[in-house]
Amino acid sequence: MIIRLYQDVKVTRPKTQSDEQVLEAALRLIHEHGPEALTFERLAKSCGLSGATLVQRFGNKARLKQRTLLHAWDGLDDKTRTLATAVPRTPAGAIELLVALSQGYGGIESYAQGLLVLREDLRDPMLRARGAAWKTTLCNALAACFAGTPGSPQDIGLLMASHWQGSLLWWSFDPTIEVTIYVDNSLIRFVAAITTAAARKP
C-alpha cells in the first residue's frame, strides 16, 4: 500500500517503486476508470513516481498499457494454477475452480469495466496469445477433474469453460444475485446434465 504524506501542498514521493508495484497501480487505474484512463500523468499521481521516470521505464502509453495487461495475465495464470492444484479432481472441484475465478469479477460495474479490458486484449496479438494459452491451461485443469467420470465428453474442459463464460454474460444482463451464486447454480446444472448423459451411454 502506497502512503502519501501531505504537508501544505507538497507531496513526499517514494524514491523507488518496482515495476511490479507500478504495474499494480496501473492495473487499478484501468479497472476503476477504464483503459483510456491509463496515462503517465494519472499513473504518476497514483504511484508517486514522476512522469519522466515512468516514460523512461515504459517508453510510451501503448507499451505501458501492454505491460500492464501482460501483468494482469501473469496474475490470472498464477491464480488459475494455484486453484487447479488446490481443488479436488472431481466435477465438484471443477465447479469450485470456476466459482473461485468468478470472484474476481465483482459487481456489474466491475464486470463492465472488465469487458473494456477484454477489448484491449483482443486488439493486441501478444495479449490474444496469452488468452489462448490461458484457455488451454484452464481447459486442461477442468478436464482433469472429470478424469474419473466415465463417459464424459473428450472436450469436457472446453465445454465447461465455455458454459462458464456464457453464464457470466447472462448474469450481467440481470445481475440480481451475486455472480458467484449465479455461476455456481449454473455450473451445478451443467455438470448434472453432463454426468446424467454420460451415465445413459450404453
Automatic annotation (TrEMBL):
Residues 16-76 form the HTH tetR-type domain. Gene3D superfamilies: Tetracycline Repressor, domain 2. One of its GO terms (molecular function) is transcription cis-regulatory region binding. SUPFAM superfamilies: Homeodomain-like. The keyword Repeat does not apply. InterPro entries: Homeodomain-like_sf, HTH-type_TetR-like_transc_reg, HTH_TetR. Residues 39-58 bind DNA. Signal peptide: none annotated. Keywords: DNA-binding, Transcription, Transcription regulation. This is TetR/AcrR family transcriptional regulator. It comes from Mesorhizobium intechi.
